[in-house]
Specification:
Elements: E1 6-10, H1 19-31, E2 34-41, H2 44-47, H3 54-81, E3 86-92, H4 96-107, E4 111-115, E5 117-119, E6 124-126, H5 129-137, E7 142-145, E8 155-159, H6 169-186, E9 191-198, H7 203-208, H8 214-235, E10 243-247, H9 250-261, E11 263-269, H10 275-280, H11 284-289, E12 295-299
Parallel strand pairs: 1-2, 1-4, 2-3, 4-7, 8-9, 8-11, 9-10, 11-12
Antiparallel strand pairs: 5-6, 7-12
Helix pairs in contact: 4-5
GO cellular component, one term: cytoplasm
Domain UspA: 4-146, 176-300
Keywords: Cytoplasm
């Protein structure tokens, strides 16, 4: 499969163990392609050293970049010796998410992988501000990796929106399923399941309309979602037992089904809303993400344009 051949791994500078790098190697060994291990670093104290000339400050920055590059190479040593193609790139940039997205755009990467930190007590995943920026603004798919091995006989769970309230839902559903099927086929023949959630009866309707029958309403909504799921699975020749349509909020249904299936990754679409739209409308994907205990693969719809642009000048050193 040629879909994910050019992989960018965002290195975590605060630990020697790199789960995202391991997951990228796992994919490349089964799927082909190459990896770039990327790190954005910045130390404000270097910019405040007024006793040094600009050339001396540049030299100091390059020294730090060289040290971090050597450290990453040591992290990659075992994989490099095993013949895994890995490039190393370190840049000086004060906003990590911008540096990562600019690298994604300039390097035309197919997939970004980054570690997601784990909350030990709940086993849930914690996302940093940088993670949220990447999930909202990165133009390529973002794979947030939890620090755990791929589960034996694990599944990939694709969360689809069956309401069809907006015109972009259907093509995004098709894109999610298509890319996930291709990936699952090449990664140890991972089984693929689809999940959709439908809403419960609004309480205010039942109260305000005495003749309203909640059971009829629920049956009608469920029927619409089952028909939409049937049409989607038949488009890809999937079996009925690999689809799940459950009543409830997506942020409750999707993590529950993922736990039940021992999913290694949940695949979902994210529209990348930012600013006022995100604040008032909210991203369904982000509510779901907060409750997941496994890896996440977030995919944007076709035609998505990142709000992050490449720098016009060459102010950022790199190696």
């Amino acid at each position: 499969m040629a879909k994910y051949q050019n992989l960018l791994v965002a290195i975590d500078p605060n630990q020697d163990d790199q789960p995202a790098l391991r997951r990228a190697v796992y994919l490349v060994q089964r799927n082909g392609g190459r990896i770039t291990a990327f790190l954005s670093i910045y130390d404000f104290s270097y910019e405040m050293t007024t006793l040094l000339s600009p050339n001396e400050r540049t030299s100091m920055r390059q020294g730090v970049i060289s040290q971090r590059s050597a450290w990453i190479k040591e992290q990659c040593r075992y994989y490099l010796e095993a013949g895994v193609p890995i490039d190393i790139k370190v840049v000086w940039h004060n906003r990590p998410f911008e540096a990562i997205i600019q690298e994604v755009i300039s390097g035309k990467y197919d997939l970004l992988l980054k570690m997601a930190h784990q909350h030990d007590r709940l086993e849930s995943v914690i996302f940093t501000p940088t993670d949220w920026h990447l999930l909202r603004k990165c133009p390529c798919p973002v794979w947030m990796v939890k620090d755990q091995p791929w589960p034996q006989h694990g599944t990939a769970l694709v969360a689809v929106n069956l309401s069809s309230e907006e015109p972009y839902h259907d093509p995004l559903n098709i894109k999610l399923v298509k890319e996930s099927l291709e990936l699952a086929e090449h990664v140890d023949h991972t089984s693929l399941h689809l999940v959709g959630a439908y809403p419960v009866t609004p309480i205010n309707i039942a109260i305000e309309l005495p003749d309203f029958d909640p059971s009829i309403y629920n049956d009608a909504i469920r029927g619409q979602h089952l028909l939409a799921m049937k049409a989607l699975r038949q488009k890809f020749g999937m079996k009925e037992e690999c689809t799940h349509v459950e009543k409830g909020l997506p942020e409750e249904v999707i993590p529950d089904v993922a736990d039940h299936l021992n999913a290694g990754v949940v695949v979902l679409g994210t529209l990348g809303r930012t600013g006022i739209s995100a604040a008032f409308i909210g991203n369904t994907a982000e509510h779901v993400i907060d409750h997941l205990k496994c890896d996440l693969l977030a995919i944007k719809p076709d035609g998505f344009q990142s709000p992050v642009e490449l720098d016009d000048d060459d102010e950022h050193d790199d190696e």
